[in-house]
Design a protein that fits this description.
The structure is a single chain. The protein has 543 residues and is mostly beta strands. It is built from two helices and 24 strands. It has a 24-stranded antiparallel beta sheet, covered by helices on one side. The two termini are 42 Å apart. The N terminus is likely disordered. It comes from Geoanaerobacter pelophilus. This is Alginate export domain-containing protein.
């Protein structure tokens, strides 16, 4: 997924997506401004609103949340008084040594919220997370800012949000992602309408000019959802359009395509069900992040039920590519079935099992293409033994992939993990050991992976000081001389509330966070190490 560039300022071109996005956002913003006042909620920008918290809950620090919903401190009981809140957040990978490749760096974010009776405004700046729908922007992180406005009353709300970020994964550091969304929620979320407009462009150069010959793209998404029976029967429909120009300097027109999705689902008693249809065109392109699989169409069904001692879920799906039936390409069909079972008959011995079956079949192969017929099987399970402060977990799984035409196995995987846990006197110890072997029969290659981790967390100083210490080692071996990789990592974190020294409405927390990671790549004959230490002041209401 790549970010794109807007045309030169002197250009007067406007795509239908641009005009459609601006018009939709203007209509929704006008509705937001004209909506009558509403009672203040626990978070002015939270959809739906939550009940007001008690005084003890107000004093507690806010937990980390995703950027899709800003769960800041609960409002005071006096809904007539306008209030301002601020919050500083910093997050880090839980286990930076768990992956053999690069680890996404941590981010910091400053948020400010102002709200009164029936309205709320939020602004944030820093390393923001942007999350929309899977067909428009699944989730991306970049450096920039966001502004949001929420208003409404009597179960009806309107929300307008704008944002801009650079350095989003899938794009270069010079690319920008800008967007605006407008959302209407009616009858206490019984019906929701949302418009999403995103645009990608290249940033200005040092002299304030647009670079020539860059890429440009727009995405417009329309979402409608209804839930009239409180979760028993809900439906959601989405229609998306994309426009992508790989080079704005040439005369080639931008490529345009669409994606659509229709989903039904709900729960009734202990039963649950779902049905999904989706189609994505072959020229549908997103601006950044992971998007839906292009040139794909299919349906999926799910059914499950929970009994007193047992629960199960069954899922079936069928997808195919070559949606436009191009005679120069074959059509691949993918069939998949999944059975997930949980047993709770023994309270101290919970068990879960899963079986997955998948077929890949090709039809209408043109001249020069070989037919394909592949079968995949996978079985996995997890067993826990609960005894006092001990939680002894054991998990494992096997899978294989077979070419049915040649009647030969292509690959196989075996894995096993031992995950014990011990808790006593406010201290938790978390060691774990995992082994994994992957066999590639087509290349006669075997890859073994070994991982050992140890974690320790708890509280000190009468439960005021919380701490966490983790360390781990991971090695990958291929059996060939001069290949493989070793990773060593460690992490330490501590947090102490400053309520005894500061009489703020919500006391801040003084935190210390440190990380270390070293990678030894024998194949590349290189060794890299990273170390970081951060002292932060989190939380705290300053006004």
């Amino acid at each position: 997924m790549r970010m794109t560039k807007l045309p030169k300022p002197e250009s007067d071109r406007r795509s239908p997506l641009s005009w459609g996005g601006f018009a939709a956002c203007f209509v929704l913003s006008l509705a937001a401004l004209l909506a009558p006042a509403r009672q203040a909620s626990s978070s002015y920008l939270e959809l739906p609103a939550a009940p007001a918290a008690s005084a003890s809950q107000t004093a507690a620090p806010a937990a980390p949340v995703e950027a899709a919903g800003f769960h800041l401190l609960p409002a005071q009981k006096d809904a007539e008084t306008a209030r301002f809140r601020s919050q500083f957040r910093a997050e880090y990978p839980n286990e930076p040594w768990s992956a053999l490749g690069d680890v996404t760096p941590s981010f910091v974010l400053q948020q400010g919220e102002y709200g009164g009776r029936g309205y709320g405004v939020l602004a944030e700046m820093g390393d923001i997370r942007i999350k929309q729908t899977p067909n428009t922007l699944n989730e991306a992180a970049g450096r920039g800012g966001r502004f949001a406005l929420l208003t409404g009353n009597s179960g009806n709300r309107a929300k307008l949000e704008t944002f801009a970020a650079s350095g989003v994964p899938g794009a270069s550091q010079d690319d920008l992602l800008v967007g605006a969304t407008g959302e209407l929620s009616l009858m206490s979320d019984s019906a929701r309408l949302k418009t999403i407009f995103l645009s990608g462009r290249r940033a200005l150069d040092g002299e304030g000019r647009w670079p020539s010959g860059a890429k440009k793209g727009d995405v417009l998404g329309l979402v409608a959802a209804i839930d009239p029976f409180g979760g028993r029967l809900a439906a959601e429909a989405e229609l998306d359009y994309s426009s992508y120009d790989g080079d704005t300097a040439d005369e080639t027109a931008a490529t345009r395509d669409s994606a659509r999705r229709l989903k039904f689902g709900g729960e009734w008693g202990g039963s649950r069900y779902s049905a999904l249809y989706e189609r994505t065109g072959p020229r549908y392109r997103l601006l950044a992040g992971d998007g839906p699989e292009r040139d794909s169409e299919g349906v999926a069904f799910g059914l499950g039920h929970s009994f007193e001692l047992h629960s199960f879920d069954v899922k079936l799906s069928r997808y195919n590519d070559n949606t436009e039936k191009n005679d120069l390409s074959p059509r691949l069909y993918r069939y998949e079935g999944l059975v997930d079972y949980h047993f709770r008959g023994a309270s101290k011995l919970p068990l879960s099992l899963q079986y997955r079956k998948r077929f890949i079949d090709s039809t209408k192969e043109p001249l020069g293409y070989l037919p394909r017929e592949v079968e995949e099987d996978a079985v996995s399970g997890k067993l826990n033994l609960l005894a006092g402060g001990w939680d002894l977990g054991l998990r494992g799984g096997v899978s294989q992939r077979t070419d049915k035409l040649s009647r030969q196995r292509e690959s196989s995987t075996q894995s096993v993990g031992f995950l014990p846990k011990f808790t006593a006197a406010g201290v938790t110890i978390l060691p774990d050991l995992s082994l994994k072997r992957v066999m590639d029969y087509s290349n006669s290659q075997r890859t073994d992976q070994y991982a050992v981790n140890l974690g320790l967390n708890g509280t000190l100083l009468e439960k005021r000081l919380g701490y966490e210490v983790k360390g781990g080692y991971r090695e990958e071996r291929t059996g060939a001389t001069g290949t493989g990789k070793q990773v060593v990592g460690a992490k330490v974190k501590a947090a102490y509330p400053l309520a005894r020294f500061f009489k703020w409405l919500r006391p801040p927390t003084l935190g210390v966070k440190g990380e270390f990671k070293e990678i030894n790549d024998r194949a590349a004959d290189s060794r890299e190490s990273d170390f970081s230490l951060l002292i932060s002041l989190d939380g705290g209401t300053f006004m």
